[in-house]
# Entry
Amino acid sequence: MSSSHALHEATDPPRGELQARSVTMHDDPRFKELRSRLLRFVVPMSIAFFAWYLLYVVMSAYARGLMGTDIIGSFNFALVFGVLQFVSTFGIAFWYARFANRRIDPLADELREELEEGVR
Amino acid sequence: MMTFAQEASSSGRLITVILFTVMIAATLGITVWASRYTRTAADFHSGGREFTGMQNGFAIGSDYMSAASFLGIAGIISLSGYDGFLYSIGFLVAWLVALLLVAELLRNSGRFTMADVLSYRMRQRPVRTAASVSTLTVSIFYLLAQMVGAGALIALLLGIRPGETYLGMSADTAKIMGIIIVGILMIVYVTFGGMKGTTWVQIVKAVMLMGGAALLTVLVLAIYGFDLAELMNDAADASGVGAAFLEPGQRYGVDVAGDAWQTMINKLDLISLGLALVLGTAGLPHILIRFYTVPDAKTARKSVNWGIGLIGSFYLMTLVLGFGAAALVGKDAITAQNAAGNTAAPQLAEEVGIHFGGEFLGAVMLALIAAVAFAAILSTVAGLTIASSSSLAHDLYNSVIKRGRATEQQEVRVARLAAFGVGVAAIILAIFAQNLNVAFLVALAFAIAASANLPTILLSLFWKRFNTTGALCGIYGGLISAVGLVFFSPVVSGKVDAEGNSLSLFPAGVDFSWFPLSNPGLVSIPLGLLCAVVGTLLSKERDDARFAELQVRALTGAGAEKAVVH
# Structure
């Protein structure tokens, strides 16, 4: 990219061929499948981890008795629950990466190549 | 036993100064190198988009694990026990929002700033102006908190206490010098090194921080024969509150005996803080622009996962460091040095060093952890400065003022000037604010990000009907409600301790507070969302084709910005 090249597309992304193809692609069954695969994973998962985290915060505020009970040796419920938040975060991150690598990337790449073919 | 400060005034202080100097020299070296490869706008704003997932993951960790988070959370744990851990969990879980809902879609659809995505299918100038106002507010609040902290911290790390002098500086002069030095360094990193230099400075810092924290964690655990339960029991005994030290409630959501109203407010405040922490991260502009520094969405995903791994392990280590400081250094010694506990980690390093190798090793360990903390300050403020300068140059200057007709050279020149301006403004503000209690600004920055930025980003990507009016109402509504509620909260005025000293920003006697919570998130996040929805429905504007285009681009990466080839 030459440095004198105006940044016009920064504010007004290129309309034209790619845009027309993208608008058509939005109704393509393969794109709908891609979007639905992604949303079917991220929406329930987001609700789940958010509820799981909120439960932890609410219990930290209102269930002090239970949180203070020792459950594993001298480790109390609060500490174990807290560490489980770490475990679930690591787990979901790993799970999502595996899911996206297998179920999202191949389809997204196929559609992207088709859309960009001959445009750039 | 000598106190921390007296100890630091001997050989330790010299080693600290030497390590600080070595680190400054090394980071300036990186900056000079990076400046040779920073020519285009993509180089300056996004480091050429050539970073690997692992590199960007380290830089993400670095942006996030500020000195406030490294020293602050260890300090909270050392003084209030479990509640510091609770704080860190919100910071970590927040990354799932970024991973699942924001990082990849933003990488595919935007270019340099948060506003690229927000304005994609809207009227450019008003939306970019709003996004820029929000970016600057969040970044400057965060920056101010970091810099005021930095000044005090450097004085403490050098062991200069009120009444003492070092190299001819009193504690007050050292504070101001600290702010000025940090400010000048961040200006130099950003104006010369751009995103490439800033990122490499951040990577170096993340490695130092993880290494330093790991070393200290292992040494603390070794003292307790790697028995975590014994360490925690020892910490609980030393805390003076016993088992309650290991449970929530010492700092957040405090039960006030006989005052049901205050108890309820405290608990709602905890939930409000929790919400802002978990929803704020994915709306912080300096975090969002990190996703543009990698070649594609898949690498953005990888970098978030690296970030989650690093940040998570770091907070688990912080738990050991905080409890270690409570057990080995003790509350009295920590608060004698700094009431907020910010020096707990360096004090622990010294104590552990002395335990294993006497006075000299104690001095070396102290200097080492002090240098890590200094690096932590520098890299976070640099990240905030580049976020501000990119938004000023790309959104306000090029898109709003020049209507997108500025050349790359002009935009980069303005970005450099903007970094300089933001840096100078931050130095001046921090010097004026240095004796004010500005720690609340970090939580406020998260609350604004969660109220103004995250809802509008998600609605842009997923709600077809969303439009310019909705985006403007969402950004300004979230921003004004978060800032406004804090302004009328006890954080700013009307909170006094038992002796009548002010615990607010304003002095005792001034009280215009009516909003009871210190954290606005519980009200401002739903309010921001509501404004965005109502604003949208009040306007007839809709562009289904543009929405289709954005969504296809966000999900497939078609038309997304490519890495710069040098």
